[in-house]
Design a protein that fits this description.
Elements lengths: L1 H28 L3 H18 L8 E3 L4 H11 L1 H11 L1 H13 L1 H7 L2 H13 L2 H8 L2 E2 L2 E2 L3 H21 L8 H15 L5 H6 L15 H7 L4 H18 L4 H23 L4 E3 L1 H10 L5 H13 L3 H8 L3 H25 L7 H16 L2 E4 L2 E4 H15 L9 H4 L3
Antiparallel strand pairs: 1-4, 2-3, 5-6
Length: 413
């Protein structure tokens, strides 16, 4: 019983870690935040079903789709957009089929450590500016919370999380992030930053509003290529989780299964009116800090997300968590992701004295952290998706350096 309670608390912590990013996407795109919770919860359970609950991954709203969703909503409306998002899930099945057909050797050749290491670093560092902005109370180019108050709340939340993760013992050590959120939130209430009136006005129970999808092939063809970026990000995230837990999920349950599970969740989220889901680097960071790798905690997080989708009062409380509180914690979490990428390069003994290795790592880090974007018509590629394509292309096109490459670079992740 005690063990189950610990796992439940760990699952609640995972949901708290993912919540800020999870609801931000629907808030930015005009979709329903409750549907984002429902889509993430059911999507994660579908993922676990396909992967036989072997991978500690929680799926939440994908940032890669924010721009396309906004464009599609304005052009074709929400019902057609939902059909397009449903159709985007099939890209995952296509890539999963290719991996099943060609085998893992194909992936290891395509994604050696010199490729995946810096890409994982970009996953964390590319959002460092956003995390710092949240810590300073800034969002959308505006100062949403007073600067001095923001820094205090962010520092308090971060300090609490660090103190619990490093110095606490027993059960408390399992919930450092949850502790940081609670302490920061209580302080925010006393400082008058939390809108208590909105919480009081919210109903206890609220049924999420469903919108029936409308078949629109223009919206579907528009959304399909957008899914390429998050599928590449998925591969990097699965490798990152494997590095944290010491397991090779590429082999068991297999990358084709993890991709198929993710794609199934994307299809479901599109059908109910939620944003597409993807693997979360925040959750990987939480795993690295708590060292609790049991996939059952993701089941608890998913079930809690589904339940909370119907609790209007609790949703109002979660939405009211001030930016600086989450920002302070994100400063730590996103940094741990970059550390995982660096560890990948070190463990695989990638030789950065090799010109080709140096070129790949340098280009990926500069373009990823610098925010380079490639835009063709209404389609744009940036961030993790762009640098993944760049890293793969450079690795395939640049000739092997006989003096520096060989078995060192060719080691599997």
């Amino acid at each position: 019983m005690f063990s189950e309670i610990k796992q439940l608390l760990s699952g609640a912590q995972i949901l708290f870690v993912a919540f800020g990013a999870l609801v931000l996407v629907p808030l930015l795109t005009g979709l329903n935040p409750a549907m984002a919770l429902l889509g993430a919860g059911v999507g994660t359970l579908m993922f676990q079903l396909v992967t036989r609950r072997q991978v500690p991954i929680f799926l939440g709203s994908s940032f890669a789709f924010i721009g396309p969703i906004i464009f599609s909503m304005q052009t074709w409306g929400q019902a057609a957009t939902q059909f397009g998002l449903f159709f985007a899930g099939f890209m995952y099945f296509i890539i999963a089929g290719l991996i099943k057909w060609r085998g893992m050797g194909f992936i290891h050749k395509l994604l050696p450590p010199v490729v995946i290491g810096p890409v994982i670093m970009v996953i964390g560092l590319s959002v460092a500016v956003a995390a710092s902005g949240m810590a300073m109370g800034q969002g959308g180019g505006k100062q949403l919370v007073p600067y001095n108050v923001s820094l205090f709340l962010a520092a308090l939340s971060l300090a609490t999380t660090i103190a619990v993760s490093v110095f606490a013992g027993g059960m408390l050590r399992l919930v450092p992030i949850l502790s940081g959120v609670i302490v920061g939130y209580i302080a925010a209430v006393f400082l008058g930053v939390v809108d208590l009136a909105a919480i009081a006005a919210a109903p206890w129970l609220a049924k999420p509003h469903f919108v029936t999808p409308e078949v629109n092939w223009a919206a579907a063809l528009f959304m399909l290529p957008v899914a390429i970026a998050p599928t590449i990000e998925h591969i990097g995230a699965v490798m990152a989780v494997g590095k944290v837990t010491g397991q090779d999920y590429m082999q068991k349950p297999g990358l084709h299964r993890t991709l198929a599970g993710d794609g199934l969740g994307v299809c479901f989220a599109g059908l109910i009116g939620g944003p597409p889901i993807t693997t979360y680097s925040e959750v990987t960071g939480a795993l690295m800090i708590t060292r609790n790798f049991n996939p059952v905690i993701m089941t608890y997080a998913a079930v809690l997300a589904v339940i909370l989708a119907f609790f209007g009062k609790f949703n109002a409380i979660l939405v009211s968590i001030p930016l600086p509180v989450m920002g302070g914690i994100m400063v730590l979490l996103f940094g741990t992701i970059a550390s995982i990428g660096l560890k990948t390069l070190i463990d695989s003994k990638v030789d950065l004295m090799s010109p080709r290795n140096l070129v790949i790592v340098s280009v990926v880090l500069t373009c990823g952290i610098g925010g380079l974007m490639v835009q063709v018509g209404n389609f744009n590629l940036a961030g993790v998706g762009l640098v993944s394509v760049l890293a793969i292309a450079l690795n395939l096109l640049l000739p092997k350096d006989q003096h520096h490459d060989g078995i060192v670079e060719g080691q599997d992740v």
